[in-house]
Amino acid sequence: MFQRNYMNPGKSGPAQVSPAQVSPAQVTPAHVHFISSVDPFVVEALCRLVGCCVVLETTRGCIEGTILDVKPDHVLLQLNHRQVCVRIAEIVWIMPV
């Protein structure tokens, strides 16, 4: 049950690794920039339809439900007995029912 000691090659014993060797700063950049496209016209249209039953065509298919809430990046729908969040970036078109 001995591991190679990477700090002192050739010696047996538990491996000792300094925090600098496994620091997330070495793996990820110091400043991460996220880019998100918000379509204000789609968000505005969805906001006007809160409480209404709609059909949303997404890149994965159609979803029919009642709009409960709208955020800049997603819409919350009530489908029968469950709620789902749909990313606005995935919406192709919206049709009130």
What this model shows, in words?
By secondary structure, the chain is an alpha+beta fold. It has helices at 19-22, 24-27, 40-48; strands at residues 53-58, 61-70, 74-79, 82-87, 91-96. The chain has a domain at 40-96: SH3 type barrels (Roll). A hairpin with a 2-residue loop joins β1 (53-58) and β2. The model has no long low-confidence stretch (mean pLDDT 82).
Number of helices: 3
Q: Would you list the SSEs in sequence order as H and E?
A: HHHEEEEE
Report strand %. Answer: 35-45%
Class derived from helix and strand content = alpha+beta
Uncertain runs: none
- Text of the CATH class of the domain at 40-96: Mainly Beta
Helix content: 10-25%
Give the number of DSSP strands: 5
Radius of gyration: 25 Å
Main beta-sheet strand count, sense and barrel state? 5 strands, antiparallel
Distance between the termini: 67 Å
Q: What's the rounded overall pLDDT mean?
A: 82
Sheet with most strands: strand arrangement? 4-3-2-1-5
Query: What is the fold-level CATH name, i.e. the topology of the domain at 40-96?
Result: SH3 type barrels
What CATH architecture of the domain at 40-96 would you give?
Roll
